[in-house]
Specification:
- The chain is of the alpha/beta class.
- The protein has one domain: Rossmann fold, CATH 3.40.50.
- Helix content is 26%, strand content 27%.
- The strands form 2 sheets. The protein has a 9-stranded mixed β-sheet, sandwiched between helices.
- The longest helix has 15 residues.
- The chain is globular.
């Protein structure tokens, strides 16, 4: 295991927005790098893109200090249509067995739940969480390493239509929101997931809004309500700190 290498699983065919310049797109692995910033000396982040075209041979997680599985435009319920789904489920289970620190973000969070026996589905009212969402830590998160320096109530940026409907056995909820009971979870001591996007910025949310909100006045109202979410980003940095050290 390389103590300074972090593996980021990204989903290459999922970019909702085709970049016209060097701007990052919603599932771009560079967002994680930008969110982590220069807080960790000599940290190497390697991206492993997953393409829709065929079966996938994933790296050996034991070669890394930690693994992040990012967001995607796909849904876990598309498992029968995604030829790599069985491969990533196997990869997740091997990573868990090896006790390599693992963090899932949004789709990655749902994938981990699915791989470990949980159930993922849409909101009961078919709505979507999109924008700034207020998060509430549970008592279990009070002294949890992911939430060092994070207040009991904090904002996060979110964009999802599916949620974890049933947790795997033994999992503990760390954060909830008014609309989603499972915003962050400890699946196992080395395995965690967050439904929100700690790597997102208001710029990314605005780019998404251009695709999803047709009415200009509604987009303007959405933009006015956006703000950065530094405490959500701190959760990601805390994971890296735990996985690779300072």
């Amino acid at each position: 295991m390389n103590s300074k290498k972090l593996l980021h699983i990204s989903f290459a065919d999922d970019s909702i927005i085709v970049p016209k310049d060097s701007r990052p797109v919603p599932f771009d692995h560079s967002l994680v790098s930008r969110a982590i910033g220069g807080y960790f000396d000599d940290l190497i982040i390697e991206s492993f893109p997953v393409y829709d075209a065929g079966k996938t041979v994933f790296p050996d997680a034991r070669d890394y200090a930690g693994v992040v599985i990012g967001g995607s435009a796909h849904f876990v319920r598309e498992a029968d249509q995604l030829v790599w789904m069985d491969d990533i489920v196997t990869f997740i289970r091997k990573t868990v067995e090896a006790k390599i620190p693992l963090l899932g973000i949004c789709f990655g969070h749902q994938l981990i739940a699915h791989a470990l026996g949980g159930i993922v589905g849409s909101f009961s009212d078919d709505r979507r969480d999109f924008g700034v969402i207020q998060m509430d830590r549970t008592k279990y998160a009070e002294k949890h390493m992911l939430f060092e320096g994070v207040p009991e109530v904090f904002d996060a940026l979110a964009s999802h239509g599916d949620i974890i409907r049933k947790l795997p056995v033994g999992a503990q909820v760390l954060v909830s929101s008014a609309g989603c009971d499972v915003e962050a979870v400890e699946f196992k001591p080395t395995v965690h997931g967050v439904q929100f996007h700690p790597e997102y910025t208001p710029e990314i949310m605005l780019n998404l809004a251009k695709e999803r909100i047709v009415d200009a006045a509604s987009r303007d109202r959405f933009a006015a309500g956006l703000s950065s979410a530094p405490y959500a980003t701190q959760v990601l940095r805390n994971f890296v700190k735990h996985a690779v050290g300072d």
